[in-house]
Amino acid sequence: MFDFIMQxxxxxxxxxxxxxxxxxxxxxxQASPVWGSIHFFIxxxxxxxxxxxxxxxxxxxxxxYFPPERTKRILTxxxxxxxxxxxxxxxxxxxxxxxxSIPIFIGFTRAGLPLGMTFAFLISSPMVDIASMLMLMxxxxxxxxxxxVVVGLLLAIxxxxxxxxxxxxxxxxxxxxxxxDFYSESEYFNQRQRMGYACNDTRIIVKNVFxxxxxxxxxxxxxxxxxxxxxxxxxxxxxxxFSVPLATLIGIPIYADIFGAIPIAEALYLASVPAGSILxxxxxxxxxxxxxxxxxxxxxxxxxxxxxxxxxxxGIILIGYLFNLLM
Length: 327
What we know:
- The structure is a single chain.
- By secondary structure, the protein is mostly helical.
- The chain has one domain (2-23, 30-172, 210-326).
- It contains 16 helices and no strands.
- The chain has helices spanning 2-10, 13-24, 33-63, 68-75, 80-90, 98-110, 115-127, 130-140, 142-166, 191-226, 229-236, 243-251, 258-270, 275-287, 290-296, 302-326.
- It is globular and about 65 Å long.
- The protein starts with a helix and ends with a helix.
- Keywords: Cell membrane, Membrane, Transmembrane, Transmembrane helix.
């Protein structure tokens, strides 16, 4: 039953076969890179779209129970390591990209929450959530998905603790501009209002995310069918000692959330790129994208911003090397 769920429900292998069947009627050959690219694009776009809508609706419904005001109240009851852990876990039920998480981060800094807790939330929110875990399961299996979630939470907690120990609160800038309203009244919603909230949030998020999903699928189709495997492995394979830092650097200029990063990671996975390099790329895309860093520069002084970048990048590279060594 577990294999059936993984392969046919989450993995949608039936959809892959159906797409090849339909393309076969047009004379498609599975050995052709052109038809292979078309199949990859159609199959991944449909698969991700189905998962995206259903999972975001589910997570948005859960999120309606954790609006920022309630999250602040929960976090104020914890300190030290426990506070960073709770903040990282709460990040898993919040918006799906770093640029959406930053307004909540700003609200937390305004409320005077400890620096470590706010950064633990900021790191985990775009990187780790239930929807991304289920989607990762559908592409890479349960083992990879669980590993990604665990190391993402550990990075968030560790980064928050380190920043808290460094005592850099004075390097947060005052930010008085308006930020997005995340339905602060939602903790008092009835069930009908929660369903409406989930539907509305799903529509907004899918509309914003879908162009990046299409871009990610297109990049994945190109990598999988047109770039020779030996070229990819020469850059990101275990044979290159700098593969993990390179994967991290490659991920920074790519602006996407986890859903846009998955098809790129899938193409690298199919090219036999090791797990550590794939993890480094995905984490860099979701937490260190240039647009989110530009937004953060409006809230953080340069010293704190570069400290944040250094800690997260070092953590990502360490995780990448560790998993390349062990897997």
